Amino acid sequence: MSVLEMTDVRKVYRSGDIDIVALDHATLQVEHGEIVALLGPSGSGKTTLLSIAGGLLTPTEGTVVVNGNDITDHDAKELTGFRRENIGFVFQSVNLVPFLNAEENLLVVDELGGGKGDKAAKARARGLLDELGLGHRAKNMPAQLSGGERQRVAIGRALFNNPKLVLFDEPTSALDTKIGAQVMELIHSEMKARDTAAIIVTHDRRMTEYADRTVEIVDGRLGAAGLQTAAH
Amino acid sequence: MFLAFHEMRRAKVRFGLLTGAVGLLVFLILFQQTLLTGLVNQFIGALKNQSGEVLVYNGQARKNLEGSIILAQQAAEIAAIDGVADAAPLGEATFTVTAGGDERDTVIFGYELGRTGAPTTLIEGRLPATDNEAVASEKDRADGYDIGDVVQVLPDGVQITVVGIARDINFSVAPVLFVDFATFESAKRTRNPDATTILPSAIAIHVADGASPEAVADAINAQVEGVQALTRQQAVDGAPGVKSVRDSFRVILALFYLVVPLVTGLFFLIVTFQKASALTLLRAIGAPAKLLVRGLLVQVVIVTALGSLVAFGLYAAALQGVKNLGVHVEVATSVYTSLVVLALALVTSLVAIRRVLRIDPIAATTGAGVHL
Ligand SMILES: Nc1ncnc2c1ncn2[C@@H]1O[C@H](COP(=O)(O)OP(=O)(O)OP(=O)(O)O)[C@@H](O)[C@H]1O
Ligand SMILES: [Mg+2]
Asked: Rounded CA gap, B88 and B5, in Å?
């Protein structure tokens, strides 16, 4: 079963009197455990596609099925629950709650799901941070962490709930090349270790080497590679 | 909750300052309310804390005891009204006396011992049992009105011994002595030796079992010429000065009641703006709006509750410092006040709540934070 099936998705933004077609007949399938790089220039519709796949936006047309759930007609409240339970997010800029330390930024996921941040949850947060090489930073506040460390905490937060699909929107754009490569390395190994599917948005072709398959997007249209799975 | 508590813990100074500000403002409200009660009690404590449920004044007195006399004929008619169990003369006049070695103005209330019109808030000693004995106000103890002190009406008049102390029985902001009506008569004669009969200022009525003071007052007003019957509460509220004191305090109090919730409402609105990007992120990763709103409400409740505690502490300490104003800690009023402040603060936090509810999680993808 595919983790994500987007079929003929169209997204039109109305801005004043003009319609902006951000996505046009986008069809994309992501298999279990597969890492897909979504490559395209600025304004090509990458974030829009990612947002629709993650239930942050609803498409104007087309269908979106995640883990067998058709979320096309979900309302805002249903989408909130859907995101919480099925998707891990790593955003481009703001990824951490500034008044929570690294560990708490992971535990917040537990609270959002109705958990009490009990021993098991704490142990899980610690384990993840250790795995991400941040065990010694667990009690640090986001302001005390470097950009790379912050993105690693965000990866831990995205993985905390064991989602089947994690969405990364330019996770390394704010980092220098070396740290960016390390973070991509980490993303790759974490996804593979958990057999978790991911879409990684980037406009940097070098980043595609960490993916199983690369899908190009230009002016809201996906390249042909969207349908086939690369033999990686 | 986790979120709300962690946020407060990490921003102690900010939330501490707000709590302190709320505490000070609530303290000012409590203190002013108590001052108002104290001040009003100094105007009319003697009326409020005497046993007559209905007071009958002269119809031309305009609710002012000082300018009222009741004729014997009227007194007899009043006593005959249905529902009147006891109608006793009550005399009131201001005298110059020596007390504690100084000359002072003192209001003397004369009532018939054992009948209606006696002070009801005795806290020490006893009521007068004979001529020339008096109950004085707790507030004036230190000024020569304590038990055992002798007060002399000038010039060269009766000597009155204080035998009991009652709480809140001042009148027109002067010391008060409750004495036997006969003692009141002698005091009057000191000033006016030729007076033939000394008329009472008012009639204090004890209503019969089952009769309501309002109904009895109405019956008297309808059936007796030239008098005005008031329930005790009406007499208190209508006494000269009381209304204007209350009105001016109320304006100030109303302002304070507005300021506290405005301060908290504005604070939480600013805080919500400042953490907009964090709230957006939380919404994006699946936080129900309800959960974020609940966290905000919890913070409002915590801040007002802690602020109220600060206020209670300041209030209790401040009242210790102004004991001579005749003020007392009003527990029920304090609790009531903090509940009102809490309710108002919750109302003004609706503006911040509205902001939280308007957060669009999609904004997390742009890092813009929030659409304002
Ligand atoms: N809320 C919106 N209202 C109107 N137009 C929008 C809105 N969001 C995006 N667009 C437009 O849709 C198109 C696709 O935007 P999108 O953010 O998906 O691009 P992107 O590929 O993520 O770009 P970047 O690499 O700069 O992040 C752009 O032309 C953009 O201007
Ligand atoms: Mg983008």
From this structure: 64
SS3 B331: helix
Closest approach atom of ligand 1 to CA A92: 27
**Cα(B339)–Cα(B336) distance, rounded to whole angstroms?**
5
- B256-291, pLDDT tens digit by residue? 999 999 999 999 999 999 999 999 999 999 999 999
Q: Which residues lie below 8 Å from residue B189, measured CB to CB, with a gap of 6+? A: B157, B195, B198
Where residue A114 falls (left for φ over 0; alpha for ψ -120 to 50; beta otherwise) is: left
Q: Where are the domains of chain A?
A: 4-96+148-227
**Where in chain B are the domains?**
2-43+242-366, 46-238
Which residue carries 């105007």 as its tokens? B43
Query: What pLDDT score was predicted for residue A227?
Result: 46
Helix (H) or strand (E) holding A12: strand A2-15
Q: Is B96 helix (H, G, I), strand (E, B) or coil?
A: strand
CB A163 within 8 A of CB A88: yes
Give the C-alpha separation, A29 to A114, whole Å. 31
| Contact across the interface for A91 and B282, Cβ inside 8 Å | no
pTM of the model: 0.83
- Give CA separation, A22 vs A10, A27, B367, in Å: 8, 14, 19
> Which pLDDT tens digit goes with each residue over B31-60?
999 988 888 888 999 999 999 999 999 989
Which of A51, A98, A112 has the CB atom closest to B365's CB atom?
A51
- Any idea which residue has 């993650």 for tokens? A54
Q: Is ligand 1 within 6 A of the CB of residue A20?
A: yes
A192: three-class secondary structure by DSSP? helix
- Tell whether omega for the bond before B261 is within 30 degrees of 0, i.e. cis: no
B216 to A153, B149, B228: CA distances (angstroms):
79, 39, 12
Share of chain A above pLDDT 70, in %: 96
Residue B50 has what DSSP assignment?
A: B
**C-alpha A40 to ligand 2 mean position (Å):** 10
Asked if this assembly's ipTM is beyond 0.85, the reply is yes
d(CA A100, CA A153): 12
Listed residue (A77, A10, A67) closest to A221, CA to CA: A10
Rounded CA-CA distance A64/B113 in Å is 93
CB contact under 8 A, B284 and A91: yes
Ligand 1 within 6 A of A219 CB? Answer: no
Q: For residue A57, what is the DSSP state?
A: S
Q: Which residue of A has its CA nearest to B290?
A: A77
Domain A4-96+148-227, CATH class in plain words: alpha beta
Residue of A nearest to B1 (CA): A111
A94 lines ligand 1 (CB under 6 A): no
Interval between CA A47 and ligand 2 midpoint (Å):
4
In the numeric block, which tokens belong to residue A129? Answer: 């941070």
B301, with CB counted inside 10 A (0-12, 13-18, 19+), is: middle
Dihedral sign for Cα atoms in the order B3, B5, B7, B9: negative
Give yes or no for A77 touching B (CB within 8 A): yes
What are the respective helix, strand and coil percentages of chain B, to the nearest 5?
Answer: 55, 20, 25
Instruction: Reply yes or no on whether the pLDDT at B1 is more than 80.
Output: no
- Whether B278 and A94 lie within 8 Å, measured CB to CB: yes
